[in-house]
Structure formats: C-alpha cells, structure tokens
Write a structure and sequence with these properties.
The protein has about 290 residues and is an alpha/beta fold. It is about 40% helix and about 15% strand. The structure holds the ligand Nc1nc2c(c(=O)[nH]1)N[C@@H](CN(C=O)c1ccc(C(=O)N[C@@H](CCC(=O)O)C(=O)O)cc1)CN2. Pathway: One-carbon metabolism; tetrahydrofolate interconversion.
C-alpha cells in the first residue's frame, strides 16, 4: 500500500481562496481585518514563520502590523507591546510568536492579551471556551489537523485517534477538538510517561504525532489503513526538517500528511480564519448597534 497524501498546501490554498472573498465582503462594509505579530529575538525559524504569516495576509487582503523586540527585551517591555496591540484599532487579532526567550513568563504574556484579539486561540479564556464548547478562536495547529482530515474525507466519527504529545500549543488541545460531538472521535493521549506507546499506536485508526521526536512513529507501529499526521518538527545537521513519522509508514498507512507540506500550511491558514472570524464578529456587533 502507498498512502494517499493529506495535502496541506492545496487545502490551505482552498481555505485562503474562501477567505479572500470574505475579506472583500468585510472591506465593502468598511471593515479591514488586520493581523498583528510580536516577534521577540532573532531566531531565524521564528522570523521565517512570522514573515510567512504576513505574506499570507497580503495574499488574502488582511492588513499587517509587525512588532519586534530584541532577545534582551524584559518582561515589562514585552507586556508594553501587548498592551499597545490590545489598544490598536487597526489590529483585529494578533499573535506572540513562540517560543519567547528564556526567562520570560510566557503564560503571563498570553494572559495579558485581550482574549477577543487572540488570533492563536491560546489565551486561557479561549482554551476554556473550547472546553465549554463555546464559540471562539481555535488553536491553529490542532484545528489545522481537523480540517486536513475533514477536507480529505477521512472518517473521524467513531475513529480511535492516538495523539502522541501533550504540549500546550498542539497536543493538549487536539483531544478537545476531536471529541466534540461534531467530530465524535475517541482519543487516547500518549506522552513521555506512556508505558507501551507501540501497543497504543497499533490500535489507532488515526495517529497524530506531535512529540518532536524524530521518527518516533515507525512502520511496525501502524495499523494498515490508518491515517497518520506528522506534526513534529526537528532539524537534521543540514537544517532539513525531520518529522515524527518514519518515511516507511507511507507503505502501511492509507493516508499520510507530508512534512513539510502537511500540517504547517494548515496552521498558517487557520490563523487567517481566526482573524477573519474576529473581524466578522466585530462587524456584526457594529451592525447590531
Ligand atoms: N504563536 C505561535 N507560535 C508558534 C506556533 C503557533 O501556532 N503560534 N506554531 C509553531 C510555528 N508556526 C507558527 O507560528 C509554524 C510552523 C510551521 C509552519 C509551516 O508552514 N511549515 C512548513 C515548513 C517550513 C520549513 O521548511 O521550515 C511546512 O510544514 O510545510 C508554519 C507555521 C511554533 N510557534
């Protein structure tokens, strides 16, 4: 068996095309959505991600507000920019690019954000809304995973999903999304404390690998016909991405997400969705007077 590709680039392009029309409709009503970003430090990877987000904005007609601080920035300096973005009327939603430099209290920064402007869905209020099944911005990579499966018609309803990883930006919220009634999956969350990872993986109809451990999911771990999503990003000595999924898995699985080209582009697309939905909520509130 050679797995079919869960094509994140093509799916993200379809989402962006839909958003372009929605942004044009908002502009016709006098509302221009704007994405703000705060980059602290000069990590080349983080800079690449931030630049990519602004390129995406330009493609669909969303405005850009780019803020940067050196890696010597203090907690207070970072929080001052967060307050400015909270108050900036041109900024519909914004993100603080993670990770922040060592010594910075990331949770304190995220908690200071206006939850209505949290384009990443990582503010505690929005994570709480997700738990309560209320409307709000959804965490970008987890929702990207769900959309990638939906777009390709992979059966989620009743499926047994095994998630590897429990990090706050990805692993922690994937079970919350997939166990909603709309998705209806059964989820097992594995992590570094899991006793027999191989036995869990072998049971899975869908595997979401978000451990950040190169090739932790191997062909012998995968049930023939499963869907496997590779969310892990590690780098080899030449800077090339090495995912959590061994390339041999493509010979066993029915579906596989490439890495790069799978969940990464979906993360970027979902960020734009969150900004446009926030602008649509603002526009509806203005119309309602
Ligand atoms: N505030 C946030 N910080 C971080 C997030 C996040 O969602 N919010 N996630 C990651 C980085 N990230 C977005 O910020 C991100 C990662 C990867 C991609 C992507 O498109 N990757 C490409 C490959 C790129 C490459 O070759 O290096 C792909 O998978 O095809 C986009 C966004 C951590 N920080």
């Amino acid at each position: 068996m050679t797995a079919q590709i869960l094509d994140g680039k093509a799916t993200a392009a379809a989402i962006k095309s839909d958003l372009t029309a929605r942004v044009a409709a908002l502009k016709a009503r006098g509302v221009t959505p704007g994405l703000g970003t705060l980059l602290v430090g000069d990590d080349p990877g983080s800079r690449w991600y931030v630049n990519g987000k602004h390129k995406d904005c330009a493609q669909v007609g969303i405005g850009s507000i780019q803020r940067e601080l050196p890696d010597t920035a203090t907690q207070e300096e970072i929080e001052a920019v967060v307050r400015e973005l909270n108050a900036d009327p041109a900024c519909t939603g914004y993100i603080v690019q993670l990770p922040l430099p060592k010594g910075i209290d990331t949770n304190r920064v995220l908690e200071l954000m206006d939850p209505a402007k949290d384009a990443d869905g990582l503010h505690p209020m929005n994570l709480g809304r997700l738990v309560l099944n209320e409307t709000g911005p959804l965490p970008c990579t987890p929702q990207g995973v769900v959309q990638l499966l939906r777009h390709h018609g992979v059966e989620i309803n009743g499926a047994h999903v095994v998630v590897v990883g429990r990090g706050v930006t990805i692993g922690r919220s994937i079970p919350l999304l997939l166990t909603r009634k709309s998705e209806n999956a059964t989820v097992t969350q594995c992590h570094t404390g899991t006793r027999d990872l191989a036995a869990h993986l072998k049971q899975a109809d869908i595997i979401v690998a978000a451990a950040g451990v190169p090739h932790i999911v191997k062909p012998e771990h995968v049930k023939p016909g499963a869907a496997v999503l590779d969310v892990g990003v590690s780098r080899d000595e030449n800077g090339k991405i090495v995912g959590d999924v061994h390339p041999g898995v493509a010979e066993v699985a029915a579906w596989i997400s490439p890495n790069p080209g799978g969940v990464g582009p979906m993360t970027r697309a979902q960020l734009l969705v969150n900004v446009v939905e926030a602008a649509e909520r603002d526009a509806a509130a203005v119309s309602a007077g």
